[in-house]
């Protein structure tokens, strides 16, 4: 079926991605004087989101999703991810980049993996956040909010 529930969601994501890219392009040129500007990263994210959603739509149209058996338990992972994103957005400015991002990455890892090896997953979360901090601070020149000011 062309308009399946999953396909409708993928079309919605594609439309949101196109809107995001258009708004990101209104921020200005991504490269000025051989240097990256703050609009570079949002434009790349928007373009990649459009690419990935187009690939997913193509795959979905080639291989229609199978109907789920009614006796299978429902999976509410998507709701947990939305809740984590909401909490992250609210907490980002108040408690800073390091704490909020570390908790966010840890929460996403825990949502998509078994509930074990907490210390390893916490370490991976901190490492990912540290790498992203260096990338934003040194490569893009974007100052991220911190708890200490």
Automatic annotation (TrEMBL):
Q: Does the keyword Membrane apply?
A: yes
Spans traversing the lipid bilayer: 9-28, 40-58, 79-112, 118-136
Keywords annotated in UniProt: Membrane, Transmembrane, Transmembrane helix
Entry superkingdom: Bacteria
- Transmembrane recorded as keyword: yes
One Pfam family, short name please? Answer: TctB
Q: Please state every residue range assigned to the domain named DUF1468.
A: 12-145
Question: Which protein are we looking at?
Answer: Tripartite tricarboxylate transporter TctB family protein
Q: Which organism is it from?
A: Pacificibacter marinus
Q: What is the lineage of its organism?
A: Bacteria, Pseudomonadati, Pseudomonadota, Alphaproteobacteria, Rhodobacterales
